[in-house]
Amino acid sequence: MPELQAVVDEIAEEMRATPLRGEVATYIPELARVDPRYFAIAIVDARGEIFTGGDADVPFSIQSISKVFTLMLALGKIGDRLWQRVGREPSGSRFNSIVQLEAERGIPRNPFINAGAIAVTDAILAGHQPRETLGEILRFMQFLAADDGVYIDHKVAASEQRTGFRNAALANYMRSFGVIDNPVEYTLGVYYHHCAIAMSCRQLAMAGRVLAHFDSEPSTIRPVLTAERARRINALMLTCGHYDGSGEFAYRVGLTGKSGVGGGILAIAPGKASIAVWSPGLDVSGNSRLGQLALERLSKRMEWSIFGA
Amino acid sequence: MPELQAVVDEIAEEMRATPLRGEVATYIPELARVDPRYFAIAIVDARGEIFTGGDADVPFSIQSISKVFTLMLALGKIGDRLWQRVGREPSGSRFNSIVQLEAERGIPRNPFINAGAIAVTDAILAGHQPRETLGEILRFMQFLAADDGVYIDHKVAASEQRTGFRNAALANYMRSFGVIDNPVEYTLGVYYHHCAIAMSCRQLAMAGRVLAHFDSEPSTIRPVLTAERARRINALMLTCGHYDGSGEFAYRVGLTGKSGVGGGILAIAPGKASIAVWSPGLDVSGNSRLGQLALERLSKRMEWSIFGA
Amino acid sequence: MPELQAVVDEIAEEMRATPLRGEVATYIPELARVDPRYFAIAIVDARGEIFTGGDADVPFSIQSISKVFTLMLALGKIGDRLWQRVGREPSGSRFNSIVQLEAERGIPRNPFINAGAIAVTDAILAGHQPRETLGEILRFMQFLAADDGVYIDHKVAASEQRTGFRNAALANYMRSFGVIDNPVEYTLGVYYHHCAIAMSCRQLAMAGRVLAHFDSEPSTIRPVLTAERARRINALMLTCGHYDGSGEFAYRVGLTGKSGVGGGILAIAPGKASIAVWSPGLDVSGNSRLGQLALERLSKRMEWSIFGA
Amino acid sequence: MPELQAVVDEIAEEMRATPLRGEVATYIPELARVDPRYFAIAIVDARGEIFTGGDADVPFSIQSISKVFTLMLALGKIGDRLWQRVGREPSGSRFNSIVQLEAERGIPRNPFINAGAIAVTDAILAGHQPRETLGEILRFMQFLAADDGVYIDHKVAASEQRTGFRNAALANYMRSFGVIDNPVEYTLGVYYHHCAIAMSCRQLAMAGRVLAHFDSEPSTIRPVLTAERARRINALMLTCGHYDGSGEFAYRVGLTGKSGVGGGILAIAPGKASIAVWSPGLDVSGNSRLGQLALERLSKRMEWSIFGA
Q1: Which of A73, A294, B64, B196 has the fewest CB atoms within 10 Å, measured from its CB?
Q2: CA distances from A243 to A82, A124, B248, C98, C178 (A)
Q3: Do residues D243 and D298 share a domain?
Q4: pLDDT digits (tens, 9 = 90+) for D165-203
Q5: Is the CB of residue C124 less than 8 Å away from at least one CB of chain D?
């Protein structure tokens, strides 16, 4: 197996030279303005060492990647009761589809489509003040990243909120079935703000360690997640982490992962590596084009696929 | 880690004592008649050694498990052109749903739902005589199982064919979009017969070695499947192998697998084990209830989950 | 043909004796509390004479029947431009379904399903203050009914608003496609209030004259609606006026009509009669059970079916 | 009111001069070859007099218009038991959609979408030989048209059968739910042949008299259909007769009607006229463009709308 830093450098170089980058998300100006030429990669390996390439210290909007961490928090708070209001199956449709909600009486298919993530956020909120809950989420991210520099981009959150009629439809719809308990505007407020968390690839790869569940894991983060829960979240990331491109990601990359519309992907090679990549251009399924390509090559060269050497 | 045969014995014993076994499939008399008290397990490990428990030498109808092997054959014949007519995403709906076909112009979501498997069979048929193609599939199974005793249960095939109006609907529908080329009755004839292949858990675990891709793999079967193709089929089994219970299987078991309505499951721990289990009672998603439970315990006790130790 | 008052008396008597009355709507307490024993009928004939039976002067919540009148107002204001945001086809699904909205990019199928009626209300609102618009709608109803006693039941409106998450979902969803222009809470506020208009059958039958388009029509109401527009609204009532029971109403009754979940139905025999019936018990499609039965008998006995004598 | 022949001449002249004619159906060569310049109209009025314009004696493929007559036959044979296997509601989707069938357990929404008409044909077949049943349908049409020249175009039927995979999918799907009883190929054989009946507008308008239910109706055809059944079939034609353009036809034309993909429309002004129009060019919903336009003008000029003068 080749040396990791060499592979990272190689991939960063290859990505720099790749012209076909996909389309940057345009539904809010803050995302539309991001330069499509960015590419970043950061890896924490099993010994806790970190390897980086490209713009690994530039913060970007993690968007849906935050849903992995709110899921951890919600499971920590209410445990398996969470699954009474959110399913664990791939959705077979677009991330913001409302059709499945109607067929399944307001229960979203999984915690990573928008409806599911809103329901998870509602479970964390649980009657508290939005500001309080949001503070808790942010401190959790800073703790996992071991970096107080993680912050919320309030302009992004405000933009999302201003244009988020589709999410308001999803939330109201679930509320009509009692799947959401808190006032819709509270739940959506927290949701938009945790999606607007800004992190660098370095910070994100650090935060992902808890899912990779290294033997060398620091004693501070080990209590956050049992081994079983880490495995289960990894399973959900594999089957549902890339919207309607999840099957494709499993097929091509063979790592568990969660993407965000800001162009980031957090990928996990359980026991081996926590990986963050970022490139703003997206494919038709809304996943970072270069991010996926970089992970495909990394997984192959390092023989990290969970589906066999 | 405990000794494998001890774990196998333990699980076989526990399953024997489990009263809640689900419902045996009843849509054809040949399946309805099978005794729900059967339980079998067989495992081939990385060194090629075989471990069995329960009724491991009793043949059962492998049904949809055959779809993993026809997929190998089709990829062997026409390579990645296959993906022009079959997708690689989980379906988010029942195994025999026709709704998605309408929304996606006759292209089935993946090769493991009925429509997808029929399209794969059609690709193997490719203008040949049904009898010829069927012979080829059977010989392939006998070769992989290293056992000429693998056979087709013609009574099962005839029953399926007599009542298979839903599959005829799927096939005609795909034919209307040009996704199927051969006469519908030819394609369905081959399809029903390969689903009617009867194997024991011992034979099935042997046949699964090619997907586990052991270092010790015999030189005869190695050329059947490249490492990359094995990984990719494993990925498809993980995301789509248990109908609308695929997410749940990944979440609970953490192995790749493909189930059949006869109560069998072929599961793979890549590089570590090829596992076959069988118990005829099914859950609401159509997957063997005890089979899944046995695999969940096996995966946990042997620490074989692909999602982390 | 029999004498009309005799038929009215006969039907009122028969309905009184009918035990099977369906279920009163229960989703808000104000509707759930209504006594299921009420039955009322009122008819204005071509000469302008009025015939009544049962509780014809008891006001009830007209609910969706108001949508016929807001449609008139919207067409009066913006004419056929309205059809850029609302379709004219039956929906083939429940009144509050959101599935079709997703398939057809936020354009509701017709002005009588909830989504369509919300879009029509939004077109009337058109930047004005909700209070103003609501006043206009109420005065329009009072004018058509020739009775200042028509009023808005604010407790009903408040109840609807408090529990109307499903409608909020529809409205936000349409807003995400630009089908709705005004702030969602303004549009919904007006919508809930016009649905909460309370009228007696006598008042409602009077208000329906404008659709029956009698030769004897008073010169005051004639300018409200051209003959062509009246015909067209009648056509929409026929194809879409009873949610997913519209085909059944046409088949059994043969009049154009619009029902409301309060148990009222406004039915029109063009050129012959404007008819209001009310009985709070509903069938599975949400239409008044006795109301439909009474209209079926009336239409048959008076030979008023638009589909032939 | 103007004189009818003058209006017919006027409309025939206007249609001749209309350049925008829509697209001729192309899915089988026999339909694709028809000259788009044809236009025909024939009307039988309440006294039984016939008025014609354009190519009123040229036979064309009546296609789905035949479904009105097979519905009469099926109701004559098994009465209201027919409605156990076919609904009476508009479908809200395309004529050959299979989605609704899945949602509603194989029961087609109405007798005029393809699935529904296949189920109706199956009810007529009822264990008889296809040839026999087809003979019965043809003789029925000849009797109603009072013309032995009505015939079946076997080349059209053969073409439909050769390419009718979508209908085979619908039929097999319904068979899987027990909605169809006869061998699928028998039912489809009869279906394709009755859709391939060829008639002129003159013959079709004559055949439609039974639905118009004139006071002057000849004593020979009166027993075919009770007044109530005629009204009910008219209601179904109004709500479901033009596929997903039924609402539009009601809105614009205000007559009951059934269209066919061959470009014909049979329209009924109950008690006043039976009208056949034909022009091969279709709109996006599959209905004759000029046919609809001609009927809209006719209905307006003769004041025949069922929705008011």
Answers
A1: A73
A2: 20, 23, 17, 21, 25
A3: yes
A4: 999 999 999 999 999 999 999 999 999 999 999 999 999
A5: no
